[in-house]
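Final report, closing paragraph on structural work. Over the funding period we assembled a curated collection of sequence-structure pairs, and we close with a single example.
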Amino acid sequence: MNKPLVSVLMTVYNAEPFIAKAIQSVLEQTYANWELLILDDVSSDNTREVIDSFTDKRIKRIYNPKNIGYVASKNVLLKQFAGEYACFLDADDWMAKERLEVQLAQFFIHNGLGACMCNYWRVQPDGTCVKMDFYPSSRFIVTANEEMVFAGAGIMFSRTVVESVGGFEPYFDRLLGDDSYWAFRVAEKFPFYYLNQALYYYRANENSITASFNNMRKLTIVCLLKELKEQRLKSGTDWLEVKQYDKALAYEQALIRDKKWLAEKYRQAAAVRLDYKDKRSAKAFLIKSFKNNPFSLNFYRTLIYYFKYNRVLSENNISA
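Its predicted structure, as stored:
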C-alpha cells in the first residue's frame, strides 16, 4: 500500500477543556502521513492558546475573522485540505490510535471505494464507553432499501467524493443533520463501506436533548431527512438540492404545530432524562407531553416508568 496524505479536519468553538485530547489523538496515530487542519470559529475561551501550544508542523491553523457556524466552517476546510483522503474529528472527541491506518486500508481493499464509516464508542458523562453498533457487521451501505444511519465524524472519504458531491448543505446551519444529508448523497454516487470496528470516541452531551427544545427546528430534522430521502429515491432530487428552502421549512413548521407529534418528542425527552437520573427535567417534559396529547398510551407507559423510578429512589434514599 502506498502512503497517501490523509487530512484530518477539525472545527472548534470554545472547546478549551477537550481539544488537547483530540489533537493528541491525531499525534498518536499509527499512520504518520497526515495533516491536521484546525479551524477556530472565533472561540471566546482559551481554545486558541491550547491549539498554539502544539508545535508539530503537520498541524495547520485557520482562524475565522468572524463566527460563521459549524456547517460553514466545515465547508471552508473542505476547500483547503491537501490530502487524497480526509476525515473529520470533532474538537471534543478523540480517535483510536489506529483509526487512520485501518480506515485508509479499506480504500485499497475495496477498489473504487468513495467513503468508509467506522463504528464508534459513545463516551457517557460518567466516562464509561458504550459501543454503538450501527449495523450487525461490516458491509456496504445500500441507499435504497434500508434505514440508513450515519455518524458524520466517523467517515473517511476520498477527494473525488468532495469534487463530485460538494460540501455540506447550508440549510442545516445551527441545526443538525448536515452530515447525514451529505453522506446519503455520497452513498448515491459512490460505494460506501461500513466498518464494524470502533475507531472513534464520541463524547455524549447529556444536555443535548434538553437543548434541542431551545430550537424546536432541531426536533424536526430526523423526519425531514426521511422526507428528503424519499424524494431523492422517487425523483433523484429534493427540496434542498433545488433550493426550495421554503417547502422544507413549511414541512418543519407543520410538524411543530402537530400536537401529537410534539407530545411524543416531549415524552422521548422525558425518558432520556430519566436515563440520566434527572427527575426534575423528566417531570417537566412529561407535563408538556400530557398537555399536548393526554390520550397517548406511550405517555402513560413512560409515566409508569417515572413513578417506578421515584419509588426506587425513595427506597434507597437517593435524591435526584
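The mean pLDDT is 91. The chain has two domains: 6-202, 209-315. We thank the funder for supporting this effort.
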